[in-house]
C-alpha cells in the first residue's frame, strides 16, 4: 500500500512540475526583455530609436507598452545600426526598434469622419492637441465601446444635453482596461439616459 501511495504521489508531483516547466518555456517574454535580448546580441545598443506604429516614442512610453503581450504586436523589427542610419540618419546610430501593433480595423479614422456631434468633436480635438489621444480614440458610451459603423451612428444620435460627463483615459489606465486597442486613447462618455 505504501508503494502505491508513493508511486501516485511521485506521479502527481512530476506531472504538476512538468506543467509548470512547460508553461515557463512557452510563456512569451515581455517587450522590454525582447528588446534587451537584441542588445545582448549587439544588434542594437543603448539609446536605440524606438518607433511604435510609425511614431517615435520615448523609453518611458516603452515602459507603458510593456503592459501588452508580445502577441499584441504583428511585428517587432530590429534595424541594425547601418540600416537604422540609412533610414533615420544620424539619429539611428544605435539601431532602431519598430513596433507594429495589432490594429482593429473597426477603429480606423474612416469611422470617425461622419461624427457631427460638436461636443464629441471638440473633446477629441482638445485631447489630440494635448497629446492624450489620436483622432480615432475608442469611444465608450455608458460602458459600451463603439466599433465600426456604430461610432458615428451612436455618437450623432446622442442628445448633447444628455451628455453628463466625458473622461479621457490616460495611456496606462486605457491600456490596462482596453488593451492594445487603446493605443489611440479612450473617451468615456456618460449620459443621463
Describe the structure.
The protein is α/β, with parallel strands linked by helices. The chain has helices at residues 2-26, 31-40, 59-65, 81-88, 118-129, 150-157, 171-178, and strands at residues 49-52, 55-57, 73-79, 96-101, 138-141, 144-145, 163-169, 186-191. A hairpin with a 2-residue loop joins strand 1 (49-52) and strand 2 (55-57). The relative contact order is 0.12.
Instruction: Determine the mean pLDDT.
Output: 86
Strand content: 15-25%
Sum up the overall morphology in one term.
elongated
N-to-C series of helices and strands: HHEEHEHEHEEHEHE
How big is the Rg?
Answer: 23 Å
Number of helices: 7
Unreliable stretches covering 5 or more consecutive residues? 5-27
**Class per helix and strand makeup:** alpha/beta
Report on the biggest sheet.
4 strands, mixed
Helix coverage percent of residues? 40-55%
Amino acid at each position: 500500500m505504501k508503494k502505491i501511495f508513493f508511486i501516485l504521489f511521485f506521479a502527481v508531483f512530476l506531472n504538476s512540475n512538468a506543467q509548470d516547466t512547460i508553461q515557463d518555456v512557452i510563456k512569451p517574454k515581455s517587450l522590454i526583455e525582447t528588446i534587451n535580448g537584441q542588445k545582448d546580441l549587439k544588434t542594437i545598443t543603448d539609446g536605440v530609436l524606438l518607433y511604435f506604429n510609425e511614431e517615435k516614442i520615448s523609453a518611458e512610453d516603452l515602459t507603458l507598452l510593456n503592459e501588452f503581450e508580445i502577441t499584441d504586436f504583428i511585428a517587432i523589427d530590429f534595424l541594425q545600426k547601418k540600416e537604422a542610419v540609412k533610414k533615420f540618419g544620424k539619429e539611428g546610430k544605435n539601431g532602431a526598434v519598430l513596433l507594429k501593433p495589432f490594429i482593429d480595423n473597426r477603429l480606423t479614422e474612416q469611422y470617425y469622419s461622419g461624427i457631427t456631434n460638436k461636443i464629441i468633436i471638440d473633446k477629441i480635438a482638445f485631447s489630440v492637441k494635448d497629446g492624450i489621444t489620436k483622432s480615432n480614440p475608442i469611444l465608450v458610451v455608458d460602458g459600451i465601446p463603439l466599433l465600426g459603423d456604430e461610432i458615428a451612428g451612436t455618437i450623432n444620435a446622442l442628445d448633447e444635453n444628455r451628455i453628463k460627463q466625458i473622461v479621457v483615459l490616460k495611456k496606462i489606465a486605457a491600456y490596462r482596461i482596453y488593451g492594445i486597442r487603446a493605443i489611440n486613447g479612450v473617451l468615456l462618455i456618460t449620459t443621463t439616459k
